Amino acid sequence: MRIALGVEYNGTHHAGWQIQPSQRTVQGCLEDALSRVANHSVKTVAAGRTDSGVHALQQVVHFDTDVERDERNWILGLNTNLPADINVTWAKPVDEDFSARFSALNRSYRYLILNRVSRSALQDKRMWWFFRPLDEQRMQAAADLLVGHHDFSAFRAKECQAKSPMKTMEKIQVTRYGQYIAVDVKAQSFLHHMVRNIVGVLVPIGEGKEPVSWAKSVLESRARAQGGITSPPDGLYFMNVEYPAKYALPTVSALPMVW
After folding, report:
1. Are 141 and 22 in the same domain?
2. With bands split at pLDDT 50, 70 and 90, how would you rate the model's confidence at 107?
3. Residue 154 pLDDT level (bands cut at 50, 70, 90)
4. DSSP state of 102
């Protein structure tokens, strides 16, 4: 039997999604909990890997088991055995051809920026605090230059293991909610640090330090050294994964996530 799960987590105290020796990771905690509930060793496959400090509203994973549990018991049993910063929101049996990774049609991320003079005690490690004023309209104009099918080598981390830097960016939307700015990005797949590096280019443009056209210049350079900084992981959220309708997977509420 193959089971799919929806998983949310606060990545602040995790060394990313993927299991690493002697490190606390989301995958490690989830597989430990699954192994307890299923009473056998369980390995998971995720829709995407997240870095240290990155959060998720809906990570999707699948695992195989011979144990029969109803959906409610999977959820309650797992959450009883998971730390407070990881939570399973739904569980659903799926066909054996389903893969959390390879069946995905697209993935969505949101990057949150707190844009005000004072920092926040409540949003520490949950947003990027940027105290200088940002013009979200300039940021959007720059983001529009990155939408489409391009070579994103300039937005790729040196450690990236992807076979090709060619990616199709379906959407980059910059929205202001009062003192908060959200950057929503959608693509079938992403390069390592790609979203954080895109934000690292949009922010200097929003600040007025660089022209809107700089985004296109960075893209066309195909050189990471020509880009901006890699923005902090604190503000990045893995928001959602879209799959073919035949799998009928549950969805979660994509609230603005700004307070």
Report:
1. no
2. very high
3. very high
4. T
Query: How many domains in the chain?
Result: 2
Whether residues 87 and 16 share a domain: the answer is yes
Band (161; pLDDT cuts 50, 70, 90): confident
Q: Which of 32, 51, 85, 124 is catalytic?
A: 51
Q: Is the pLDDT of residue 123 over 60?
A: yes
Which residue's entry shows tokens 């699948």? 62
Same domain? 115 vs 92:
no
Instruction: Band the pLDDT of 258: cuts 50, 70, 90.
Output: low
The helix or strand, by DSSP H or E, that contains position 118, with its residue range, turns out to be none
Measure the CA–CA gap between 13 and 87, rounded to whole angstroms: 14
- 194-207 and 136-144 helices cross at what angle (nearest 10)? 130
- Name, in order, each residue with C-beta under 8 angstroms of 168's C-beta and a sequence gap of 6 or more: 148, 149, 187, 188
CA 219 vs. chain centroid, Å, equals: 22
Render the burial of 113-143: b for 16+ CB within 10 Å, e for the rest: bbbeeeeeeebeebbbbbeeebebebbbbbb
What pTM was estimated for this model as a whole? 0.94
Residues paired with residue 167 on neighbouring β-strands, in sequence order: 150
Domain holding 70, by residue range, is 2-103
Catalytic residue list contains 135: no
One-character DSSP codes across 179-209 = TEEEEEEEES---TTHHHHHHHHHHHHHHTS
**One-letter identity of residue 47:** A
Give the DSSP H or E segment for 18.
none
